[in-house]
Amino acid sequence: MNARRTDLTPARLPRGFADRGAAELAATREMTEAIRRTYELWGFEAIETPFFEYTDALGKFLPDQDRPNAGVFSLKDDDEQWLSLRYDLTAPLARFVAENFQRLPKPYRSYRFGPVFRNEKPGPGRFRQFLQFDADIVGAPSVSADAEMCMMMADALEAVGIRRGDYVVKVNNRKILDGVMEAIGLGGPENAGRRLIVLRAIDKLDRLGPEGVRALLGEGRKDESGDFTKGAGLDADAAVRVLDILKAKAADNLQTARRLFDEFPKPGAGQEGARELSAVATLIDQAGYGDRVELDPSVVRGLEYYTGPVFEAELTFKIEDEHGRPIQFGSVGGGGRYDGLVGRFMADDVPATGFSIGVSRLQAALRALKGADAAAALGPVVVLALDREHIGRSMAQAATLRAAGIAAEVYLGASGMKAQMKYADRRHSPCVVIQGSDEREKGEVTLKDLIEGAKAAAAISDRSEWTESRPAQVTVPEERLVEEVRAILSRHV
Hints:
By secondary structure, the protein is an alpha+beta fold. The protein has two domains: 22-51 and 86-184 and 234-370, Bira Bifunctional Protein, Domain 2 (BirA Bifunctional Protein, domain 2); 381-490, Rossmann fold, CATH 3.40.50. The protein is built from 17 helices and 18 strands. The chain has an eight-stranded mixed sheet. A five-stranded mixed sheet has the order 15-14-16-17-18. Strand 3 and strand 4 form a beta hairpin. The protein is elongated. The two termini are 51 Å apart. Residues 29-380 form the Aminoacyl-transfer RNA synthetases class-II family profile domain. Its EC number is 6.1.1.21.
């Protein structure tokens, strides 16, 4: 008897990371292919940037420490240069555009897909590695590019199966909120902390309503559990000024834009933002997207990063959790104008706008829409190996199926027929190919439709009836293998 090994390495997944199985990968591939087709219909081209960038190119270096900050995964190369795994797909794009500026067409329309990495504390639904799918236009200063982004985002959601009416693309402008901050005396770097509290309060409008936001703009708010959140400390007049902006949302986009103009009668950031939103609203309505894209002054997205219009794709349908409580997925992507990012590498700023889709979150929403019992993707046809001496013939049958474009594999284990059938079930195989000695001598194969067989078996209670009927099973000449397998597959696609 062999001694049991004691030097085993524990099999454990790092926190904040996830393995992904065949079904999830297939769903991701199907969804991202639909998004890719949409982007290319709008004239965007694919690029791929590496996982690693120089840390200073990502803008994530702390000058008071001899290492990158904790938000990114970093290492030093053999030249003592700090490298970091990308934390989004936009910063690498900015580097790529600056490095290739002279040869790229302007405006430059591109899309990118892949994993990004965050060195942050993981939690429920919060991973250190996740997928993003981005699209950007670099070199277009007009808000017509921002309008196109919003419209393309709507098309992408419908392309993956989100019905019109189950989502909305919301648009705001950083300059609107800058104007509000200036009006209530929170301009300048010295008020950055209080501005952030105000913006976080605005971002909770959908969840807490106007009164909840009013409390967070003032002294603070106690929630249902008794926890207290400190507020921004605004006086009553300043809080009303902020809430008035949020109330500017009207029944249609042009009316919302007019109300925003009324809120900013004097020249400044707010009035400029209202003018840009008015232009976006006009373009959206003229292009026929007014029922899918709407102006909403409550949209807040990383505002220190953006310089103009900002937008967010929000799912509006509700489902119930396992306890019957209604839940809503909310945002599955967003973006905005970031005219200063490419300019970090160049003498002058370069206008740019774009958005990012959170692939995992959107995929979870699609699973919820289709239901938990959505059919799993079909696996390959499995050719059983009942006689190891003749496995070469089984391999030839699988090769014949593959040559016809049908996914097929030969069972390569050492188990008997019962275990081989169980294996085929676990592979979600639509059917198996069986050739015992009798079939081989006659030049025949037996095909068993596993999907129809399972349905028939559920209705059969008597063993003799099962033996006589052999549900969903047919024996055919071997030369008709491809034809008969295709007939089975056609019933399940």
